[in-house]
């Protein structure tokens, strides 16, 4: 079975600073793939290459096993695309815009577009020019999903959406994947994709820094436990516990990080009088920031 | 589904429908104004003397192909409409439409979304070019209809065939420049560049055609000006010359063939 997306040594150079360098990446059928990186890292450049809107300087991008340069039309008939910098036809209404793209895709009916619009609570008959940023983004999402494409390529899909609408989007992404389809989405913040993505790639300055499953990343993450004691414990009370590290202590409040099980810490705490205990879930954002930093050291 | 949004061609026509109405009103109004003045010009032979006394340098710009003969029906329409106003207006319409077609959509940022559909760039370019041709030909039909009705109303005696010939010549001239603006827009993605370069070339060609007969040094260059092929056959009196029509169509075809080549291979602006 071929990979849905296969980037092979993909390089796009513009000036000295922009573009992507020698990107190798595969996206498997039926997964949600998060494509992450700070703004300007090359995410949009990569995505626009996949749509054949720009052409690689070297290397190539295969989608469904087809080359983007040779088979653009065939590829795009099976892709739903949401641009990062979404611009719509201002003089059309959403209904007209969806009808236009539906015709270009030879869709017999717009029933699915209507269903999606209803789920997003999108009004179809007000001119685009009068729509808020969030509503425009909904139009963009509806046109990307409406033909039930095998691959969704979504550049910063949740930008401009309020949290409730973001949830609707995550549902749609999960439904698409449950349906055997594939979702490729970019973001500059991990928290936007960690709940929906199976795997993520991190790019920075046009280079691939890491590809891993969200599960593995999470395993690398430390849980934080904040404990409030009745009496400040002795300095050396928690030394030598496996996986446990004291991050900060302010009087009777101590912040621990856990690398593994919580049990050693619990056993140690049992010897003290504990007023309050607060545990935070692994924060992948911190993992990412630490990856950025370790990569910096590595590069230097 | 909405009928006028079934294809890139139809959508492009739909986009210009309001502007087209205003262009039509403007062209028809201009024709009505000029034609309605003709009865008071017809018997005023002193006007002929006035025009004949123009500096030679101006005469080339007042004539439309043949001799001026301002008070004759063909001479009057030639000087008042076809020597400047008609080609000027049709060129503005065509160059504007050509520059807007691809570069305008690219600058507004909607081209990414359009080309994410399963349609080739070549196809998008050709449908948009077809829309440009349809728009300018339709404006030509409006112009021709206004001329035909107007000239009958005031007994301005130019045959239907000759009115059609002059209009067709103007439409073909406008299409050459419209296609050029389209090509520059498709190649660069810059609407301002497409409009500016094409307009500058058109003005240069117009001046060249008007002055060439007077200035020995540039006289042989007159035939390099598309305006020569627009006017030289004296369409209002003599109709069209196949060779001249062929040159204008040839310019359009050559430019049109270059469009997909230029548009296909470049990166689109984000």
Q: Can you describe what's shown?
A:
The complex is a heterodimer of chains A (300) and B (270). Chain A has 300 residues and is of the alpha/beta class. Helices cover 31% and strands 29% of the residues of chain A. A six-stranded mixed sheet of chain A has the order 6-7-8-3-9-10, with helices on both faces. Chain A has a four-stranded antiparallel sheet with strand order 2-1-4-5. In chain A, a hairpin with a 2-residue loop joins strand 4 and strand 5. Residues 295-300 of chain A have low confidence and may be disordered. Chain B is an all-alpha fold. Chain B is built from 13 helices and no strands. In chain B, helix 6 runs antiparallel to helix 8 (121-153). Chain B is globular. Classes of the chains: A alpha/beta (300), B mainly alpha (270). The A-B interface holds A 44, 48, 51-55, 72-74, 76-77, 79, 81, 83, 85-89, 91-92, 95-96, 99-105, 110, 140, 143 and B 1-2, 5-8, 11, 15, 108-110, 112-120, 265, 267-268, 270.
What is the number of strand segments of chain A?
14
Assembly annotation: heterodimer
Indicate the structural class of chain B. Answer: mainly alpha
Strand content of chain A: 25-35%
SSE run of chain A = EEEHEEHEHHHEHEEEHEEEHEH
| Secondary structure tally, helices of chain A | 9
N-to-C span of chain A = 40 Å
Instruction: Determine Rg of chain B (CA atoms, Å).
Output: 20 Å
Gross morphology of chain A: elongated
Shape of chain B: globular
What's the average pLDDT of chain A?
89
The largest β sheet of chain B comes out as: none
Proportion of residues in extended strands of chain B = under 5%
How would you spell out the order of helices and strands of chain B?
A: HHHHHHHHHHHHH
Number-wise, the strands of chain B total 0
Tally of helical segments of chain B: 13
Name the average pLDDT of chain B: 95
Give descriptors for this structure:
heterodimer; A: 300 residues; alpha/beta; six-stranded mixed β-sheet; four-stranded antiparallel β-sheet; 9 helices; elongated; disordered C terminus; B: 270 residues; mainly alpha; 13 helices; 0% strand; globular
């Amino acid at each position: 079975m071929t990979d849905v997306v296969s980037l092979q040594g993909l390089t796009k150079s513009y000036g000295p600073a922009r573009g992507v360098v020698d990107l190798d990446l595969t996206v498997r059928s039926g997964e949600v793939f998060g494509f992450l990186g700070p703004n300007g890292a090359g995410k949009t450049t990569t995505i626009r290459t996949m749509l054949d809107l720009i052409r690689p300087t070297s290397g190539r991008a295969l989608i469904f096993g087809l080359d983007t340069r040779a088979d653009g039309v065939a590829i795009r008939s099976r892709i739903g695309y949401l641009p990062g910098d979404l611009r719509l036809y201002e003089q059309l209404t959403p209904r007209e815009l969806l009808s236009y793209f539906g015709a270009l895709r030879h869709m017999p009916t717009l029933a699915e577009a209507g269903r999606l619009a209803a789920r997003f609570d999108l009004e179809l008959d007000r001119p685009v020019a009068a729509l808020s940023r969030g509503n425009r983004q909904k139009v963009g999402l509806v046109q990307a999903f409406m033909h039930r494409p095998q691959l969704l390529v979504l550049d910063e899909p949740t930008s401009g959406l309020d949290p409730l609408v973001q949830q609707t989007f995550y549902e749609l992404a999960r439904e698409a994947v449950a349906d055997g389809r594939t979702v490729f989405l970019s973001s500059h913040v991990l928290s936007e994709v960690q709940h929906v993505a199976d795997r993520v790639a991190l790019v920075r300055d046009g280079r691939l820094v890491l590809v891993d499953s969200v599960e593995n990343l999470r395993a690398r993450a430390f849980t934080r436990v904040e404990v409030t004691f009745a009496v400040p414990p002795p300095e050396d009370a928690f030394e030598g516990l496996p996986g446990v590290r004291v991050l900060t202590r302010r009087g009777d409040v101590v912040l621990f990080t856990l690398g593994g099980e919580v049990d050693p810490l619990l056993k140690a705490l049992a010897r003290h009088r504990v007023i309050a205990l607060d545990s935070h879930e692994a924060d992948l954002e911190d993992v990412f920031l630490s990856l950025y930093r370790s990569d910096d050291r590595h590069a230097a | 589904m909405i009928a006028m949004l079934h294809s890139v061609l139809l959508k492009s026509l739909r986009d210009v429908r309001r502007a087209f109405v205003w262009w039509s009103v403007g062209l028809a109004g201009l024709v009505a104004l000029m034609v309605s003045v003709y009865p008071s010009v017809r018997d005023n032979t002193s006007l002929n003397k006035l025009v004949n006394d123009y500096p030679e340098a101006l005469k080339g710009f007042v004539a439309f192909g043949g001799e001026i003969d301002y008070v004759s029906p063909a001479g009057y329409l030639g000087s008042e409409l076809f020597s400047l106003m008609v080609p000027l207006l049709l060129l503005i319409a065509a160059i504007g439409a050509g520059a807007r077609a691809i570069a305008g959509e690219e600058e507004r940022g909607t081209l990414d979304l359009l080309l994410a559909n399963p349609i080739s760039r070549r196809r998008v370019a050709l449908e948009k070019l077809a829309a440009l041709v349809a728009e300018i030909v339709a404006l030509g039909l409006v112009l021709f209809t206004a001329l035909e009705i107007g000239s009958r109303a005031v007994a301005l005696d130019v045959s239907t065939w000759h009115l059609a010939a002059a209009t067709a010549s103007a439409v073909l001239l406008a299409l050459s420049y419209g296609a050029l603006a389209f090509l520059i827009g498709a190649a660069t993605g810059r609407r301002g560049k497409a409009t500016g370069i094409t307009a500058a070339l058109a003005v240069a060609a117009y001046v060249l055609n008007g002055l060439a007969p007077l200035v020995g040094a540039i006289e042989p260059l007159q035939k390099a000006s598309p305006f020569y092929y627009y006017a030289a056959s004296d369409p209002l009196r003599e109709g069209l010359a196949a060779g001249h029509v062929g040159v204008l169509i040839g310019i359009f075809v050559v430019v049109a063939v270059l469009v997909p080549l230029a548009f296909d291979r470049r990166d689109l602006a984000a």
